[in-house]
């Protein structure tokens, strides 16, 4: 966080980090779409890709017991979201909810995602969870952020790692 304070300039000014309101849960479909990592030169899939059965568990009927979302808000616009829920997803680890996180493209690379994740990790400590898991493509530079924040690789697949943060 100290590094971000020195390098983030004014990008954090006016940004609030708070639990997502129930009325904002429909935005998770957009954030799930934005969470899809695309290597340079790869054409983005159509937005309706989030309707695929393998992606729906990340957002369908969000708000059930155990679901939690922290968002980054600038003014009235939600610009980022970090959420977790118990599901059988790409990064599932037994007895842990799985994390998904993304920012709107114009807010990336400014330290906002780092602060969002740091605050999210602080929040889940209050929830008595053993930890959280995630899946990240090996090509995705975000894996370095996850490692910096204390996530560890627990499973390797062909092009992805499953990582865990122990609370």
Automatic annotation (TrEMBL):
A molecular function (GO) held by this record is: acyltransferase activity, transferring groups other than amino-acyl groups
Query: Which Pfam families does the annotation name?
Result: Acetyltransf_1
Q: Which UniProt keywords apply?
A: Ribonucleoprotein, Ribosomal protein
Question: What domain of life does the UniProt record list for this protein's source?
Answer: Bacteria
Q: Carries keyword Ribosomal protein?
A: yes
| Claim: Ribosomal protein is one of the keywords in the record | yes
Q: Which SUPFAM superfamilies match?
A: Acyl-CoA N-acyltransferases (Nat)
Q: What is the protein name for this chain?
A: Ribosomal protein S18 acetylase RimI
Organism, as annotated: Anaerotignum lactatifermentans DSM 14214
